[in-house]
Write a structure and sequence with these properties.
This protein is of the alpha/beta class and about 300 residues long. The chain folds into two domains: about 70 residues, Roll (Ubiquitin-like (UB roll)); about 160 residues, Rossmann fold (3-Layer(aba) Sandwich), CATH 3.40.50. About 30% of the residues lie in helices and about 20% in strands. The chain has nine helices and twelve strands. Helix 3 runs antiparallel to helix 4. This is FtsQ-type POTRA domain-containing protein. InterPro entries: Cell_div_FtsQ/DivIB_C, FtsQ_DivIB, POTRA_FtsQ_type.
């Protein structure tokens, strides 16, 4: 018989060593490094500053009290100014909500954009940029300002603008008539000094697109192409003393503009011939019916 416990000695001695080996393999989690005391104070100070800034941003200490609105013209100026001022007084100079100002002007097509500039602690300046009307479409005696892109600018300043007649009232917020759009585009290309002299822009069978100047000749553009070149030619011809008295300018070919309806240069220079051309005189000299090239001096061949 084997003694009790015989044969189990090695296994009994091996168990504790195995446990110790496994314990050695397992790594203990490292403790997180502690922040130094001054670091904690810095983080606390930053948190307080952020919280104070968020509170001050909407505080009455920096509430908007003085509002100025510039850039508006036309009949809607007073109403729109009041609405912008009311919206601004719900803001602070540290928290200007431009989206709210844009929401106020959105129903007004005359407004192109709005910007705001705050001055600490209580002042807000609002600048409005308007869409500039280049003409007024005329339907049944009612004029509506229109921008160069054909957008109807209801509420814009009803100053003296060139008239573009239309037979049908435009629907929506833009002009859809192609003939009217051609005239509007021509006016948009016009130099401001010349556009202010245009009274009417129509399309005629003889001259195509035709613009009537105040105290000046008609401008026959023909088609709606090469508008910049045609306006440049018109400005050059009107500045030339040789075109004085012309009843129309043919600008269909801007490189060869012509002034029409001029008197015969001979009658302009010779008083006796001019007197002979009067009714009842024995000799008459008819007015020239053909167009004289722009820039041609009296008595010279173009």
């Amino acid at each position: 018989m084997r003694p009790r416990g015989a044969g189990r000695g090695p296994r009994a001695h091996g168990e504790p060593s195995t446990r110790m080996h496994r314990a050695a393999v397992l790594t203990r989690p490292r403790a997180l490094p502690r922040l130094p005391r001054h670091g904690i104070w810095v983080l606390a100070a930053i948190a307080l500053i952020v919280a104070f800034g968020l509170w001050l941003r909407d505080s009455s200490l920096v509430a908007v009290q003085k509002v100025s609105v510039t850039g508006l013209t036309g009949p809607e100026t007073a109403r729109l100014t009041t609405q912008l001022e009311a919206a601004a007084r719900d803001m602070t100079t540290l928290h200007v909500r431009t989206d709210q100002l844009e929401a106020v002007v959105r129903p007004y097509p005359v407004v192109k954009r709005v910007t705001a500039h705050a001055s600490f602690p209580h002042t807000l300046r609002i600048e409005v940029t308007e869409n500039v009307p280049v003409a007024s479409v005329l339907v049944d005696g009612v004029r509506t300002p229109v921008g160069g892109d054909g957008r109807l600018l209801r509420g814009a300043d009803q100053r003296a603008l060139p008239v573009v007649p239309m037979s049908v009232v435009p629907t929506g917020d833009r002009v859809a008539d192609k003939t009217a759009l051609r005239a509007i585009a021509a006016l948009a290309f016009a130099p401001p000094a010349l556009r202010s002299r245009v009274q009417r822009a129509v399309t005629t069978p003889a001259g195509g697109l035709t613009l009537t100047l105040e105290r000046g000749p008609e401008l026959h553009f023909g088609g709606g192409d090469r508008l910049a070149a045609k306006w440049a030619a018109a400005a050059a011809v009107l500045a030339d003393a040789g075109s004085a008295g012309a009843t129309y300018l043919d600008l269909r070919y801007p490189e060869r503009p012509a002034a029409g309806g001029l008197e015969d240069p001979a009658t302009q220079r010779d008083p006796e011939t001019a007197n002979a051309a009067l009714p009842g005189a024995s000799t008459t000299t008819g007015a020239a019916a053909t167009a004289t090239p722009a820039g041609a001096a009296a008595g010279t061949t173009p």
